[in-house]
Amino acid sequence: MTKIKDLDFSWQSKITKNITFIVTKDCQLACKYCYLVGKNEKERMSWEVAKQAIDYILNNEDKFKEEAVIWDFIGGEPFLEIELIDKICDYIKIQMFKKDHHWFNSYIFSFSTNGINYHTEKVQNFINKNKDHLSIGITIDGTKRKHDLNRIWKGEGPEKGSYEDVVKNIPLWLKQFPEAGTKVTISSTDIPYIKESVLHLFSLGIHEVNINCVFEDVWKEGDDLVFEEQLIELADEIIDNNLYEDNVCSFFSEHIGKPLDRELDNQNWCGAGKMLSIDTAGNFYPCTRFAQYSLRSKRNWIIGDINNGIDNNKLRPFLTLDRCTQSSQECIDCEVASGCAWCQGENYDAALTPTIYQRSTAICKMHKATVRANNYYWNKLYRKLELEGKREDFEKRGIKVSPISCY
Amino acid sequence: MLKYLVIVLDDTSVSYCHYNNECKEKRLIDIDTLKKGIVYAMKENLSIQYVLPDYTLPKKYVEVMESIDNIKFCSSNSDMIDEADVIVLNGWCSNINFNREKTYVLRISKEELFEKEKDIKLSFDKMSRLNVVITNITSFKDSDIDRYNDVLNSFSKDVKSLIQNGFKINILTDRIMLDAMNNCNAGAENITLAPDGCFYVCPAFYHCGENGEYGLGKTKFCIGNLEKGVDIKNSQLYEVEYAPLCRKCDAYHCKRCVWLNLNSTYEINTPSHEQCVVAHLERNASKTLLESIGKHKLFVPEKEIKEISYLDPFDIIDKL
Ligand code: SF4
Ligand code: SF4
Is residue A226 part of a domain? Predict the structure, then answer.
């Protein structure tokens, strides 16, 4: 049997199915950049819906042939529903065992949490029970002033940041998941704090910082230049203080900023359609970004439900989508195209017609700024390593970084 | 590039394709709109196709319509059948006085086609061209594959002897004659002017009515009007080059119906499994027919129709 550790659990990987339960649309926080426009306290997944979804998935093994599965739980804040999640995970494990399902022992439960409830007894019991099959990411945006700028508590009255409530759980989290990384999302107002935030996260012991600009059209005139400046300063700090030896920041990747071949590099970057997302009502989506609470201006894109299963015709546009068909000529010809990401859900939301085949280019100038800073980083780093006679050694170590993360 | 303008003359005009038009309430296009539509077509170099209702049109309309070269579609029940070039049969009826000068469109459900296959082919020798449109293609199941193959093979036997006299039937002879895609191309090569004075991708997008929904929104959406001209948002998606499955496909005769696409997959450029399977059964039957006749006996393109292992290009998308 394939060992769990040998499996590539990247959701972009062909062999892994990503199945997301939207267990609640509620969250303790009201982050200013949150893409979930329709969050609310009422919509919670019932046990009946969850069970029916699991039964459909596990009873249709021929439709889910991927070698491994990531059972993903999101919200809102998923740990608000820890009791339901615990019941779901127990049921999944029992059913996979009973059915001698090919995913038995080839699964992980994955969570993206705001970290506020991380230390609670119920969450900790769950972690201990499932620790060999768990991936948990806590979102912390950086320094206190940067984090509290956006990640504020929900409710009336003066704004209250959530930094202190999250940072207190970081040591416990890193003790349990020493390899864990964090996701940081940059919006226009965050730009001046990028350098200090990444350095702060490194200092907390988080060695992998996956960071990306929001895909929405929020960027103001001149943002790209300030952004570039921040990244150059960050590059200097990382290189001058040898931080690159133990840490990675996804802004700096050698794969960013190269032209892409029309034929060879024509794959769709985004995994929508290869994933399956289930909402509180039991509807299926190609990705959570297509559920109504994620969409500003378009209708939710349902591809089936727990009663009728997946309608394969609804998946065809997602599974046949490629880079060039959705891109403008400018993007196809772009000299620095590699690493320029998109989100299929945001493309749909921003498109002129209800289609996933029109790529949004709101991120263009920010990507180009990233490329300039990234070039600077590698030129400077390699020169330093050469002078120190360490370049070969560094290249052999082949530091891996996932250059783009979803949201 | 646009080449044709379809003008739907009335809300009750016949459907000649995959969509249904159940409207019973007459609403004739305004004569000024008709005139403007004709002038628009002349200026844009578009050939005109009129879609007629069943009742006799006023004389002044006929005069305006005939001010330009055109093709007229009407139903077999229409009072204007003698004037029309294309006659639509809604379901099979044997008691038609077929006319070799005209083209016939048979709109038929798969069930009726399977049932009346023998009756239908008995009339082949009375026609010069028949276009078969399966009206419920989306309900085509894998269990229908064998039955449709039987129909195609049975038709094929008769077509084999008639083809050299010039008989054509879209589901068997079109593919033989083609060496490149030749689809409906609504929104790319043709658009429709409706009685409300607006342009639509094809009549289907008008006749579906205000309440028509397809999951992501309204199915009725106009793409401009006579005053402002044509404005198709994301117009590239109507072109075959922007359809990842179709651009590599060689079921060249397939309608590649954007109306069916929208309703079944939610994307204009993405066909359903059923549309592809039906087109491939026809493609494969055309291949067998061509081989049985011998290419040298027909004026057909040099290229062979290749042997393929799939009925739906989606099944080999990684290899396309
Ligand atoms: S058979 Fe399918 S892929 Fe081929 S042209 Fe028709 S709709 Fe497109
Ligand atoms: S898009 Fe073309 S093939 Fe489809 S219903 Fe309209 S006219 Fe017919």
Answer: no
Band of residue B76 on the pLDDT scale cut at 50, 70, 90: very high
- What per-residue confidence (pLDDT) applies to B230? 97
Q: A48: domain CATH number? A: 3.20.20.70
Q: What is the dihedral of CA A88, A90, A96, A97, to 10 degrees?
A: -170
Q: How far apart are CA B54 and CA B81, in angstroms?
A: 9
Phi, psi of A29 (to 5 degrees): -100, 165
Render pLDDT for A189-244 as a digit per residue (tens, 0 to 9). Answer: 999 999 999 999 999 999 999 988 989 999 999 999 999 999 999 999 999 999 99
The boundaries of the domain holding residue A105 are: 1-138+273-320
State pLDDT tens for residues A347-401: 999 999 999 999 999 999 999 999 999 999 999 999 999 999 999 988 887 665 4
- B179 backbone dihedrals φ, ψ, rounded to 5°: -130, 15
Residue A195 included in any domain: no
Give the B-side interface with A, CB within 8 Å: 215-217, 233-234, 237, 242, 244-245, 264-274, 314, 317
3-state class (DSSP) for residue A14 = coil
pLDDT for A403: 43
Does this complex have an ipTM over 0.90?
A: yes
Helices (H), B189-294: 204-207, 258-265, 273-293
Distance (Å, whole) CA A247 – CA B70: 72
A172, A120 Cβ separation under 8 angstroms: no
Residue A328 corresponds to which tokens in the numbers above?
């403008």
Nearest residue by C-alpha to atom 5 in ligand 1: B246
Cα(B165)–Cα(B8) distance, integer angstroms: 34
Domains: count for chain A: 1
Q: How far are the Cα atoms of A40, A216, B291 from residue A225, in angstroms, in the given order?
A: 37, 18, 66
* CA pair distance A252, A229, nearest whole angstrom: 14
Q: CB distance A313–B273 less than 8 Å? A: yes
Residue A175 lies in a domain: no
The Cα angle at residue A260 between residues A257 and A262, in degrees rounded to 5: 165
* CA-B203 nearest atom, ligand 2: 6
Q: What is the pLDDT of residue B319?
A: 63
Residue B22 token pair = 């159940």
CA distance A302 to A314: 8
Chain B positions in Cβ-Cβ contact with residue A325 (cut-off 8 Å): 242, 244, 269
Tokens of B124: 């082949």
What residues 132-161 of chain A have any CB closer than 8 A to a CB of chain B?
A: none
Q: What is the largest CA-CA distance in chain A?
A: 65
Ligand 1: which residues within 6 Å by Cβ?
A: B 245-246, 249, 251, 254, 256, 271, 275-276, 279-280, 313
Instruction: Return the residue of B nearest to A359 by Cα.
Output: B234
Q: Tell me whether residue A176 is in a domain.
A: no
What pTM was estimated for this model as a whole? 0.93
CB atoms within 10 A of CB A172: 15
From the list A320, A352, A353, the residue facing B314 with the nearest CB is: A320
